[in-house]
Amino acid sequence: MTSETKKKSKIAIAGGGLLGRLLAWRLSQQKFDITVFEAGDLSTPSGACWAAAGMISPLSELVRTEKQIYVQGLQSLKLWSEWCTQLESQTGRSVEFRRAGSVLVAHGKDRNELLQFLRELQGKLGESAKEQVESLNSQALAALEPALGSFEMGLYLRGEADINNHRLLPLLLNVLRQRGVTLRERTPVSCHQKQISFAGEQQQFDCVIDCRGLGAKEQIPGLRGVRGEVMVVESHEVVLQRPVRLLHPRYKLYAVPRSDGRTVIGATQIESEDLSPISLRSSMELSSALYSINPAFAEARIVETRVNCRPATEDNLPLIQNEEGLIRLNGLHRHGYLLAPAVVQQVEEQVAQQLLQVA
Ligand SMILES: Cc1cc2nc3c(=O)[nH]c(=O)nc-3n(C[C@H](O)[C@H](O)[C@H](O)COP(=O)(O)OP(=O)(O)OC[C@H]3O[C@@H](n4cnc5c(N)ncnc54)[C@H](O)[C@@H]3O)c2cc1C
């Protein structure tokens, strides 16, 4: 068989959330025949990916997680910037990937939270802390983020970024459609080596990639859901330029502004797989933390609330399992946007290795 007549390797991707879409997009640039199986509707995503705020914060996360998350986060930041440029040229639309850093603040009485955070970050970053983290006095803070004028100090984490997931996910879907990727919606599947099964049917593939998030719970021991709640508010009076985090002993908050004047605020982290609507307590805590950043938020309108569960492993680290004809990736927990490109790139390499013999 000449290289032109070789049969394309068939890949099944189970789950059309963040990992599934990103992987399908990347692999569709190579000569593979790809089918995506999604339990729900791809145009109204139901996974954790849609509820997320899209923060890409390797530095903020470094203080509370393993160094691996930071390292893979930096790798992902670089990839996001390349991949978003590609996706924008393929679709002619902006993904709204913003690399404007993020700002951390704490109220006067919680100043120690901020100082402790800075000490821990400096301890972990060593010399490079100087380039990556800047302490701001009230004037410097007001110049960078005028809406935070009432705070005495803040920290500017220069390299952090965020992405508008409500633009990214539909754009990825558009490109998959344009490229002729087979999309099987409303089709919940089970994953096996080289085989997908659903509704009493089996289909054979050269490789199956399981990206079902919490949907893979039965096959991945210890996988659990961690409930997260966010609210979306609209304010004409307060405009933030970049993600802002409020450090507080009890009520932690981030606020991620979007280009349409809306701000995503969140997120709770509750050890529960309950998917019922946001609780009164969570909505009050998020609202009052936001109001404490700038009282002009009092007139903001709550336009949406979102609840979903982050897929997390026992050690809260990403999981990539590779056996012949079946790759499982999962456990991105609260780091889906932070880590997805690095994880996807690793899997792309494994797929190429597995299928080299077949192609
Ligand atoms: C409130 C909240 C805020 C968050 N904020 C951030 C943030 O700011 N930054 C960040 O980095 N991360 C954030 N995350 C985490 C991030 O959203 C997740 O880590 C990420 O979405 C995980 O991606 P995934 O593709 O593994 O799973 P998902 O995005 O959940 O996708 C899994 C997909 O598989 C489908 N599926 C399930 N079962 C089956 C089946 N049997 N057959 C076929 N398909 C199936 C589901 O319908 C879904 O579409 C947040 C999460 C939440 C809940």
Automatic annotation (TrEMBL):
It is an enzyme of class 1 (oxidoreductase). It holds the Pfam family DAO. The keyword Oxidoreductase applies. Residues 10-343 form the FAD dependent oxidoreductase domain. Transmembrane segments: none annotated. Its EC number is 1.4.3.19. Pathway: Cofactor biosynthesis; thiamine diphosphate biosynthesis. GO terms for molecular function: glycine oxidase activity. Keywords: Oxidoreductase, Thiamine biosynthesis. NCBIfam families: thiamin_ThiO. PANTHER family: GLYCINE OXIDASE, SARCOSINE DEHYDROGENASE-RELATED. This is Glycine oxidase ThiO. It comes from Microbulbifer epialgicus.
